[in-house]
């Protein structure tokens, strides 16, 4: 193993030195069939990440967690605060999806789809290698004094890192503030919206710090998913593993020459699998929490096996059972339970989403002077209806008179733009002589859209002899 390569130990992560200080990793670059496949996946995922904020479905941004308006748009489905049960169902379904994927295919997410791995290994590490050269050169330069060569390379690398981080940060913000807002803010003078500029700079700086400095520590120290492994994985789950039965007794040519009678395995102890590992571990030590299943060690080992005339697969996608010589089962009780729960959750979500009301109404008593006495013998109660239109087209919501009460509304039906809410003021006039005190006078408000009832509410009138404000029965409580 070349000097300078971090040696894994059993009692502390490879990124932490004996004194507790950060130990910088210099993973070697490599090529191989898994790397080629990962490059294709990375490109597709990056195209999706950068492209989705510009895609619109049903009049809404395809994926938008609209925090200012408390809405979530997901490929045409727009969830409002009133639909929070659907959001919880969606999260529960996603959690079950993670459970089943991890139980079946291990840390597929970490190695292939996690943004940290996709950007770190697919973009930042490649740029670093281009600008600063091979790991051994980088190590030497980092340990050496400042020189013009070191200054220009570091300046260029960190400048490019920050620019890419800013682009990633802006795109990430487009998922919570919409692509139009981000574009508008980016193109206008920063002095006009300093708070937005500060937010954008702060998020960019966070991404930059992660990719330029924090790096693999996000996976090995900060990310909770690695810890979940111990409960989500079992002996049948797919992992990247070293075939110790085939590889051991390991030894290089020197060791083999010195002990010609000793039986040796296929591992020639070249250390390449450790040199390429982005988390600095030695896969030969068995399943480890730090392994993100990135497949780099598979690609590093395959040419070695080819060179010494041994079959590929000393390090491969496998399972703990297969490494012990037993058979791996894809279908087992835990995957059946996860799959059944996932199907149930998806079905409940689909049914709930398809029966979701796209127009909703709620009525409250108007603030301030909720009751007035006008024209001498007449009482007027003032209410406000909040009209919600969750659809992608404008609608008109009408208030229909019932029970012989006289309503006054500024406009009936009341227009509500697509994906918006509107407030309808409702005045109910009642002759003083007909008024029933104590909350007994309760006209029924019925709201309709295109002739179909979408909500109703009983609204107790206030007047002489009605001390407290009786509660309004919400739409749908009484038919
Ligand atoms: S790359 Fe293969 S042969 Fe080399 S040390 Fe790793 S497991 Fe052994
Ligand atoms: S051990 Fe292999 S698969 Fe695991 S993180 Fe290191 S290089 Fe990637």
Describe the structure.
- There is one protein chain.
- Among the domains are: 149 residues, no CATH class; 100 residues, Immunoglobulins (Immunoglobulin-like, Sandwich), CATH 2.60.40.
- The chain contains 16 helices and 16 strands.
- It is of the alpha+beta class.
- 42% of the residues lie in helices and 17% in strands.
- Bound molecules: iron/sulfur cluster (2 copies).
- Overall geometry comes to elongated
Number of strands: 16
Strand content: 15-25%
What profile does the largest beta sheet have? 5 strands, antiparallel
Overall pLDDT level: 88
Helical proportion, percent range: 40-55%
The kinds of small molecule bound in this structure are: iron/sulfur cluster
Please identify the structural class as seen in this structure. alpha+beta
What is the number of helices? Answer: 16
Distance separating the two termini: 80 Å
Question: What are the low-pLDDT stretches, counting only 5+ consecutive residues below 50?
Answer: 1-6, 475-479
Radius of gyration: 32 Å
């Amino acid at each position: 193993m070349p000097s300078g390569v971090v040696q894994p130990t059993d009692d502390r992560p490879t990124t932490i030195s004996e004194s507790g200080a950060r130990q910088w990793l210099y993973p070697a670059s490599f090529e191989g069939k898994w790397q080629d496949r990962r490059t294709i996946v990375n490109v597709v995922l990056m195209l999706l990440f950068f492209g989705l904020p510009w895609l619109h479905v049903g009049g809404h941004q395809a994926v938008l967690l609209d925090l200012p308006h408390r809405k979530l748009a997901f490929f045409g489905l727009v969830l409002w605060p009133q639909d929070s049960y659907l959001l919880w169902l969606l999260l529960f379904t996603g959690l079950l999806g993670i459970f089943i994927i991890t139980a079946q295919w291990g840390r597929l997410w970490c190695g292939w789809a996690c943004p940290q791995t996709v950007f770190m290994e697919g973009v930042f590490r490649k740029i670093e290698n281009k600008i600063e050269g091979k790991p051994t050169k980088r190590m030497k330069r980092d340990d050496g004094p400042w020189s013009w060569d070191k200054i220009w390379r570091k300046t260029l690398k960190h400048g490019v890192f920050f620019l890419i981080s800013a682009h990633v940060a802006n795109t990430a913000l487009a998922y919570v503030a919409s692509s139009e807002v981000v574009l508008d803010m980016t193109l206008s003078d920063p002095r006009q919206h300093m708070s937005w500029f500060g937010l954008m700079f702060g998020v960019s700086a966070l991404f930059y710090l992660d990719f330029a400095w924090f790096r693999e520590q996000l996976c090995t120290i900060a990310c909770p998913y690695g810890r979940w492994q111990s409960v989500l994985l079992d002996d049948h789950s797919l992992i990247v593993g070293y075939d110790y039965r085939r590889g051991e007794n390991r030894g290089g040519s020197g060791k083999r020459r010195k002990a010609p009678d000793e039986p040796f395995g296929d591992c020639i102890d070249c250390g390449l699998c450790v040199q390429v590992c982005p988390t600095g571990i030695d896969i030969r030590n068995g399943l480890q929490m730090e392994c993100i299943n990135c497949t780099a060690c598979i690609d590093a080992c395959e040419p070695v096996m080819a060179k010494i005339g041994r079959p590929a697969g000393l390090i491969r996608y496998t399972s703990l059972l297969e490494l012990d010589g037993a058979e791996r089962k894809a279908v087992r009780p835990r995957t059946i339970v996860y799959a059944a729960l996932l199907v149930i959750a998806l079905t409940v979500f689909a049914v709930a989403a398809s029966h979701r009301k796209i127009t909703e109404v709620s009525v409250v008593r108007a603030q301030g002077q909720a009751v007035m006495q006008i024209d001498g013998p007449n009482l007027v109660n003032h209410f406000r209806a909040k009209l919600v239109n969750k659809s992608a087209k404008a609608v008109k919501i009408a208030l229909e008179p019932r029970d012989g009460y006289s309503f006054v509304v500024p406009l009936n039906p009341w227009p509500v733009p697509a994906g918006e809410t509107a407030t309808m003021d409702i005045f109910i006039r009642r002759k003083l002589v007909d008024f029933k005190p104590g909350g007994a006078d309760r006209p029924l408000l019925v709201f309709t859209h295109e002739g179909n009832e979408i909500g109703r509410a009983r609204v107790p009138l206030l007047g002489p002899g009605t001390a407290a404000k009786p509660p309004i029965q919400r739409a749908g409580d009484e038919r």
